[in-house]
Amino acid sequence: MIFFTLGLVCDLQAQTVRGQLLDRGGNFVNAHGAGIMQYQGTYYLFGEIKTGKTWLVAGQQWEDYRVPAGGVSCYSSKDLKHWKYEGVALKPSTGDTSKDLDTGRVIERPKVIYNQRTNKFVMWMHIDKKDYSYSQSGVAVSDRPQGPYRYLHSLKPNGNMSRDMTLFQDGDGRAYLIYSSEQNKTMQVCLLSNDYLSPTTLYRRILIGRNREAPALFKSGQKYYLITSACTGWSANAAFYAVADRPLGPYKVIGNPCRGTGSGLTYNAQSTFVLPSPGKPGQFIFMADRWNKLDLPKSDYLWLPLKVASGKVVIDGN
Ligand code: DGJ
Predict the structure, then answer these.
(1) Torsion angles phi and psi, residue 268, rounded to 5
(2) Is residue 285 pLDDT above 90, yes or no?
(3) How far away, in angstroms, is 116 Cα from ligand 1 center?
(4) 132, 213, 272, 301: which to mutate for ligand 1, most atoms within 8 A of CB?
């Protein structure tokens, strides 16, 4: 029993990240607001490419620090420790800020899922203008996990604003888009079409009036857990989680999953994704961004073990 427990701890610690992550070429992994998709025994990590100079958008009443939208990167790994750079999965465009993927715009929180019916890889992401007034979800598709992805368009699901977002694919093959809506006051969960390329008209308002962003939804046992942050620009704040019996909710807010020193600020990080720990029911990897708002490309990562025990979510960052 002692050996088993020690083995488990070591294994989980090996997937812990606190700071920069290096790829197999020795370069910093450039994948912010990331998510991971598993396909045929390989993990694919997708995230925002942040390079260039950080500036503050004039005339905004909040921390609207920006860096050129660099598109979406992809890395692959068999063990979640050694990452191979697969290149730019979704390229940005330049010179026309009316285009969704222009480097002067916002491309954030890309997430990818595989559609077994169509044999396509589908990416959703937050697309915005530099003042975040556009508030749309973008969709792109590829025949290969690592891309290149073909950008289709962006949209407002059922006419609703969508900013920080994530995807969740359930065991029954249904997929959901979860996004901050209504000026970030309320989140929404929307069932996607069978090909995952469009929102359906089935959606629910959740965490009503709670002002949350950075959603990360996962399933443990028969329950669905949603971790979110508060809305404080790039500055850290306290996470909370909510639980539901179905992806569409209703969700019941439970509280802060973080324990120990720094738990009031999510250890200076913000949620982006929760990945089931390979072969370990009830154990997960909590993935978060440690933003450096004055120099956004220097932002790094915090990946911590997350456990669900007796229906409670616990992250211990110490
Ligand atoms: C917090 C969000 O979670 C990030 O993805 C980004 O949109 C920043 N706000 C912008 O301030």
Answers:
(1) 70, 30
(2) yes
(3) 31
(4) 213
Note the pLDDT tens digit of each residue in 261-283: 999 999 999 999 999 999 898 99
Whether 125 and 137 have beta carbons less than 8 Å apart is answered as yes
Q: Encode pLDDT of 152-164 as tens digits.
A: 999 999 999 999 9
DSSP reduced 3-state for 108: strand
Residue with tokens 């660099």: 70
Cβ–Cβ under 8 Å, residues 100 and 151? yes
Token pair for residue 60? Answer: 């905004």
Residue 81: closest CA among 136, 24, 129: 24
Residue of 142, 182, 140 lying closest to 164 (CA atoms)? 182
Q: Which domains does the chain carry?
A: 2-316 (2.115.10.20)
Q: Tell me, in angstroms, the distance from the centre of ligand 1 to residue 127's CA.
A: 12
Stated pTM of the model: 0.95
Please, are residues 141 and 123 in contact by the beta-carbon 8 Å criterion?
yes
Strands (E), 91-235: 106-115, 120-128, 136-142, 150-155, 165-169, 175-181, 186-192, 199-206, 212-220, 223-230
> Looking at this protein, which amino acid is placed at residue 2?
I
Residue 257 Cα to ligand 1 middle (Å): 21
Report pLDDT digits (tens) over 2-32: 333 333 333 445 589 999 999 999 999 999 9
Output the ligand 1 site: residues, CB below 6 A: 33, 63, 108-109, 164, 213-214, 233-234, 270
d(CA 74, ligand 1 centre) in Å: 20
Averaged pLDDT of the chain: 95
User: Phi, psi (5° rounding) for residue 266?
Assistant: 50, 40
pLDDT of residue 279: 86
